[in-house]
Amino acid sequence: QVQLQESGGGSVQAGGSLRLSCVASGVTMSSVCMGWFRQIPGKEREAVAAIRTGSDSPFYADSAKGRFTIALSNTKNTLYLHMNGLKPEDTAIYYCAAVRGCERLLSQAEYTFWGRGTQVTVSS
Question: Exposed, middle or buried by CB within 10 Å (0-12, 13-18, 19+), for 64?
């Protein structure tokens, strides 16, 4: 069974940084799309960033461009999200997702495996 486990969330003041991690088990890191999505309180879940194994071209939502960086470690079976310049509007539960093969990396409908989420809280 494929399992995704997020970690690294917490509380930080505006302008601070956090690094989220997602450890994947039960799946090989070949031909896999992985991404980060978030659920802001009172809003629909939205894409943050995604990457395909074997590709050097990650995809970012407009809200993440210039501030967040997604990275994938094949050897560690771990997906990362480096978040800099955090804003209060970044407060959300951040979810890690994966799927064996995909076409639209930022479309959450593509993903079949989901983690339980990690809370990120940014105070002003």
Answer: buried
